[in-house]
Request: fold
Amino acid sequence: MTTLRKPLEESARRAIAARTEALFRASGALRDGHFVLKSGRHSDAYLEKFQVLQDPAATSELCGFFAAAARLDDGSAAVDLVAGPTTGGVILAFETGRQLGTRAIFAEEIASPEGGTRREFRRGFEIRRGERVLLVDDILTTGGSLLAMIPAVEALGGEISECWVLVDRSGGLGTLTSPSTGRVYPLRALWQLELPTYEPGSATCPRCAAGERAVKPGSSGTGMAGAPA
Reply:
């Protein structure tokens, strides 16, 4: 596994986190309400990443932080390609790859023959054996999207260098363990954000207890997720 640059000094890490937060807040991406996250858990705050990603200048700046971490001390790219999951990860992978001068690809979520879903590289995308891969994504809550990416990369013989996200709201996972091979990969974030999440239901979620309807944000808009549990 390729080792990228040493971790940033604390002052630099804080500066990047502050700038990332400023870009999210300026775009109106941090929203208050009663939301159902992709994981199924409830939250009283939601990050709508596409409010940031619709701004090419902001996206380019954020991907610049990814790209800087994926360069060797001589300025050359320490990876051969950048990969991300649909949907936000597509934008981030291609802009990061543009800045590094590498290829950029994405993996789609498809139905698995065993049931459930899995990630797969389609549309002619390939990873040659031994190629160094930087995985990028937008918001990490449980790590599910990136965890599903790892077996897809490993199956093609790629070597994952690191996994980067814009915002980590998981509580600080720090690493991701491959569900296929058990290998452990470093996980980095530009901004770590503490936003509590709750199991749905009046016994665990304060907004459910208050009788507020939950909405499921994202590609389906703000459609109602049903009556409170």
